[in-house]
Amino acid sequence: MKEYIQNLNLIDLISEKHKALREEVNGRSSYPLNKTETHILAMLDLHTVLSISEVSRLIHISRQGAQKCINGLLAEEYVKIAQVVGNARDKHITLTGKGSEACRSMLEIKVEMERQIIDRLGQEQVELLKKLLTEEWL
C-alpha cells in the first residue's frame, strides 16, 4: 500500500479507496467507458428510463455535461432514445442490449472484487464495513 495513505483523514481515505476500486473495475472491464459513462449506465440500469435532466441531477453534473456524455453513449450504441407517451419535450434514454451487457459485466467484476476483499479482510469485517457505510452519518 502507498505510504501516504496511512496519514490520511477519513474523508480522503474513503476517496482514495473509491478511486482505486473504480480504476480496478474499469481496468478489468472489456468496455472502454469512463467513470461518468459507467455511472450513467448504472443509473439507467437502476431506473430503466431517465431524461437527460434526471441523469444530470442523479450524477451531479451539468445538463450539458450529461448531454455530451449521453451523445457518446448513443454513438457507441450503449443507450437509445426512448419515446415516452405524453412527453414530447424531454429526451428519455434507456439501455440497449450492449448497455445492459456492459452493466452485467461490470456487476460480475464487482462481485468478484468483493469476494477478493472478503478473502483478504474476512466476511465479518466486510459486513461491518457495509453496515457502517449504509448508516446515516452524512
From TrEMBL:
Gene3D superfamilies: Winged helix-like DNA-binding domain superfamily/Winged helix DNA-binding domain (1.10.10.10). Residues 1-138 form the HTH marR-type domain. InterPro entries: HTH_MarR-typ, WH-like_DNA-bd_sf, WH_DNA-bd_sf. The keyword Transcription regulation applies. The keyword Transcription applies. PANTHER family: TRANSCRIPTIONAL REGULATOR, MARR, TRANSCRIPTIONAL REPRESSOR OF EMRAB OPERON. This is HTH marR-type domain-containing protein. The lineage of its organism: Bacteria, Bacillati, Bacillota, Bacilli, Bacillales.
